[in-house]
Amino acid sequence: MRAFAEWLSGTGPSVAIQSTFWLIRLLQATHLLTAGVVTASGVLVALRVLGWHRTAQPFAAVWRRFAPWLAWGVALMVATGIAQTLGDPVREFTATSFWLKMVVLLAAVTGTLGIARAGQRVPPATDFPVAAKVMAAGLIICWLVLPLLGRMIAYDRAIWGSFSLRS
Predict the structure, then answer these.
(1) Cα(70)–Cα(38) distance, rounded to whole angstroms?
(2) Domain tally for the chain?
(3) How far apart are CA 62 and CA 116, in angstroms?
(4) Do the Cβ atoms of 38 and 71 come closer than 8 Å?
(5) Which range marks the domain in which residue 15 is found?
(6) Exposure of 66 in the CB half-sphere (CA atoms within 13 A)
(7) pTM for the model
(8) Measured distance CA(95)–CA(104) in Å, rounded
(9) What is the pLDDT of residues 44-81, one digit of tens each?
(10) What is the DSSP annotation of 131-144?
(11) Are the beta carbons of 74 and 31 closer than 8 angstroms?
(12) What is the DSSP letter of 128?
């Protein structure tokens, strides 16, 4: 993976991102702000499943409110994340935190879509099944861990020690 990352860092798009000071800062800021929107939206949907937020509203209404924020946020977060990775592929691809973040992101998105599908089957006045609530609790953890893992990429070796892919 390191050899691929080193090759990628020498390509035209990567060099262009690396050499444009303001672009990488803009990408980082956009990625961070979008991560906040996505995290908040994902957590609020999960809190509704747990019955701790917007309980007077049917799940479908809560989903309609936050799904666009999640969808556009994840799309923008992925786009800026790809551009950031292209700008410094060696740092990203050799970070244990990066790969954990990708796994957690996939789990959070998949789980949230699963909760949304389950929410369509639950009548508005009823409570979610225990399994859905357990899933929602796990999703809250996933959504909250994502920004943390993103920040940990810069300190990967110090955090993970011998488990870091940066050796």
Answers:
(1) 5
(2) 1
(3) 10
(4) no
(5) 2-163
(6) 21
(7) 0.89
(8) 14
(9) 999 999 989 888 888 999 999 999 999 999 999 999 99
(10) HHHHHHHHHHHHHH
(11) no
(12) P
